[in-house]
Write a structure and sequence with these properties.
By secondary structure, this protein is α+β, with helices and mostly antiparallel strands. The protein is 47% helix and 11% strand. A hairpin with a 2-residue loop joins β10 (425-428) and β11 (431-434).
Length: 463
């Protein structure tokens, strides 16, 4: 049996984690090693592992024994109990298979123009000297991208405005630094329709109504569209059965809420790191210029942006947007030689795995070159989870980050961090976000450097 790492009560451990999510995980691993037990307010007793071999056992274990959907059930009130993240067994496999074609690698080519154009619109008004929070900027871009590619809302109008407002307002409520507290069932109490949770619940119900109305309208549409919702509506299983409206609504909420926030956060971390590394911004700008020439960025350019690809991978190594992934044991299991009883909440701590010096020499340094030409081991680099539950939107997210960052880097503007001191992670619900929102100042580029970029994107002001 694993030894207990701490005698602290669960609520104290939760407060430690909320106050310093990165540091808490690292200090515990340094003190207690590769496997230990920890009390948790949310999950009871957690068995926490960080060795790649143990993580492989967890992610490749029998899904009937290692229940991922049940481990995510605290997200149910937000995403809905039919979300692919909350399903297990045959139900999970069925819904995942129905969704996979919309996120196949080849589908990403269809989304490139939307991602590039949304980015160009968002940065088009920036001027040298402007101060901007990159996290907020990326949130706006990724939300517009996902409203277009998932819901097919590609023109400004009442429906787009309403959906954008509802999602951003809901996220502001549930992803505040204290947002993890709303997941504790005992705190989700309504007092005659009043109180924080009652208010959040009304916003979730309003978003549900908007999405269900949109699904109904799209089912009645005579003209076929090519967005994710259209593909999900058309999808049928081997028996000719499709997804009902309630299930569709849950998947749309999962994609809209989880899909855009995680990419925005990862890009904030990327600029936190690359703007601290002398010459990195210039190297990436030069790579984009060399690959694209005077043409707009296209899907064909992306495989050639090797340095940018390595920057994204190194960012996700240092800063996976969620530090750990859980499974609930439905039956007893042995992991890394330790016998665990049914009911144990098993944690694969990717954050610590990514910072193991035996896997990544000088693990705290930002060194993109460590990924150049390297084949990834799926249990040493796992910001999207692993096994059959690996994030369905992994290809979409990586593609989106590359397009947005390449568009910004090729636009002829330079950025400088307002605060170059050490940056800490802060919690946005379960997401590890850079504290302060990555505030930058827009700098002018010398004319001889800006000429190429101005040709690429004349709508971006260069001075």
């Amino acid at each position: 049996m694993l030894p207990p790492a701490s005698k602290l009560p669960g609520f104290v451990n939760m407060l430690r984690w909320m106050a310093d999510p990165d540091g808490c995980l690292e200090r515990d691993a340094a003190r207690y090693g590769e496997a230990y037990l920890m009390k948790s307010t949310l999950f009871g007793v957690e068995a926490i592992f960080n060795h790649p071999a143990a993580l492989k056992e967890i992610f490749t274990g029998d899904p009937e024994r290692f229940a991922a959907g049940e481990a995510n059930e605290l997200l149910g009130p937000l995403l809905g109990d039919r979300s692919v993240l909350l399903l297990d067994g045959a139900e999970h496999l069925h819904v995942r298979r129905m969704m996979m074609p919309a996120f196949h690698g080849e589908r990403m080519r269809c989304y490139t123009d939307v991602m590039r154009e949304s980015t160009a619109r968002a940065i088009g008004s920036l001027r040298p000297g402007d101060q901007v929070g990159l996290h907020g900027l990326f949130q706006r871009i990724t939300l517009d991208v996902i409203l277009n590619t998932v819901l097919g809302l590609d023109e400004e109008g009442p429906e787009l405005t309403q959906a954008r407002h509802q999602i951003t307002h809901l996220l502001d409520r549930v992803q505040a630094p204290s947002g993890a507290l709303w997941m504790i069932p005992t705190l989700r109490r309504e007092m005659y329709g009043y109180g924080p949770w009652a208010s959040i619940k009304r916003e979730i119900e309003a978003l549900d109504r908007t999405l269900l109305a949109h699904i109904a309208a799209r089912r009645a549409l005579s003209v076929e569209k090519d967005d994710v919702l259209a593909m999900l509506i058309r999808a049928v299983d081997e028996h000719g059965k499709g997804l009902d409206d309630a299930t569709l609504c849950c998947q749309l909420k999962t994609l809209l809420i989880a899909g855009h926030e995680t990419s925005a956060t990862a890009m904030g971390w990327a600029f936190e790191e690359l703007l601290r590394e002398p010459g990195e911004q210039e190297r990436l700008m030069a790579e984009v210029a060399r690959v694209t020439g005077t043409a707009p960025l296209t899907a064909e350019h992306l495989p050639k942006l090797e340095r940018l690809d390595s920057v994204i991978k190194e960012t996700l190594r240092l800063h996976p947007v969620t530090g750990a992934m859980g499974r609930i044991l439905k039956k007893p299991a042995t992991i890394a030689g330790y016998d665990l009883p049914a009911g144990t909440f098993v944690v694969a701590c990717a954050h610590v795995t990514h910072r193991r010096p035996d896997l990544y020499p000088e693990p705290l340094r930002f060194m993109p070159e460590r990924f150049v030409g390297k084949k990834l081991d799926p249990y040493e680099w796992l910001p999207f989870g692993g096994g059959v539950r690996r994030c369905l939107g992994m290809a979409f997210s990586l593609h989106e980050m590359k397009v947005i960052m390449a568009t910004m880097l090729g636009a002829g503007i330079e950025l400088r961090l307002v605060d170059r001191g050490p940056v800490k992670a802060t919690l946005r619900s379960l997401i590890y976000s850079p504290k302060g929102g990555t505030k930058v100042v827009v700098r002018a580029r010398p004319a001889k450097k800006a000429a190429h970029s101005a040709t690429m994107s004349p709508s971006i002001p260069i001075e």
